[in-house]
Fold this sequence. Notes:
This protein is of the alpha/beta class and 431 residues long. Helix content is 41%, strand content 17%. Beta-D-fucopyranose is lined by residues 15, 18, 158-159, 162, 215, 277, 337, 375, 382-383, 391.
Amino acid sequence: xxxxxxxxxxxxxxxxxxxxxxxxxxxxxAWEQREGTIVDGTGSGDAAGWWAGKAEEDxxxxxxxxxxxxxxxxxxxxxxxxxxxxxxxxxxxYRAIVDFANSQGLQVLLTLNHFTLPSWVAKLGGWTHPNVxxxxxxxxxxxxxxxxxxxxxxxxxxEPAVLGYMAYAGHRWPPGTGDVRAAFxxxxxxxxxxxxxxxxxxxxxxxxxxxxxxxxxxxxxADPGRRLDRVAASLQDWAFNGAMLHAVREGELRFPLxxxxxxxxxxxxALDWVGLNYYGRYDVRFDPRAAGxxxxxxxxxxxxxxxxxxxxxxxxxxxxxQLLRLSDLDVPLYVTENGTFDPTDDRRPRFLMEHVDALAxxxxxxxxxxxxxxxxxxxxFEWAEGWSTPFGLxxxxxxxxERTPRPSADVYASICRARGIxxxxxxxxxx
Length: 431
Ligand code: FCB
């Protein structure tokens, strides 16, 4: 018998800016036009053509491949290109996409904001500006009114910690502030925005299920016998995972670097479910020179990385460990992203099989996990990596727009259809 119940969601995930194309009013679009921001010199451009009509083709393929859900996001910069001016045609397009998904038997999990900001919000200073949570609340309210009759599952924000570190502590994502304190301020505001967005959606849609999506890598000491490795690993874990978890569980903000403790009681109950985005494990070695990284370097081998970014070592065990941690929040769990970049698809089939297998074990062991979404359905614009690190089950030829299913698309289809790992698949892939 399958550990995955009848209602379990097996889907894939995308985000607006990464697949739509032509998001000219966003902070990312402006960033991409600047020399040297994207490693392969590309930009999002037409992306995967979703806005121009390809969403339907890809969603139809997802349904043919046995999936029953899709996680997608709304582009704030399209829907509110100027403060308070909402674009009717853009809402119509999203309605059409969501209706199409539903007509194909795909339940939609809708993320209100996946990293990108309208240029006018970016001009204020982005997430560090004190008014942005209220602006986001207004946006969330409007989206709930416009789309609420066709969407039951909502996420407010995607990965506040990743955005905080990449865009505000780091230099590689807009605005590229390069100041770790700015990152903590931004994260605080994002959490506030989450709580306000949660309330806003519920005011319009009392029965909606509203959650938050967090990326939680598994930080482990490189040498568990070495105290300094253990300290560095737990510092990194606190800065990335622990502080966020503490905030939504206890309703208290406690970020490092003397920003102090602040009560945030409205945060504590603002979750109907929580989403885990999970890519892998980091083995942390103490390094006195790595002050900016909480004195830890990542040394795991093998690992999934390019020259600029490291997604960690695939470790299904780490995914289960993080789900277990999240289960403390006492709300249903979803794996809202899991996947790997792998242009040749040598590793991806095994990656997916192992993670689904581990998830089955976790559910059988009592964890309340309601869905699993592979990142991603189709190759898309991978932020500062451009098009150099394809994550899709469907390979995209950017010249012709043609899609070619990778072998892992079929492996995942077998998983979706059988609702788990079949006896036929297991020996070939897991051997
Ligand atoms: C996650 C992001 C998603 C994509 C994957 C590879 O952190 O949410 O947009 O970039 O990583």
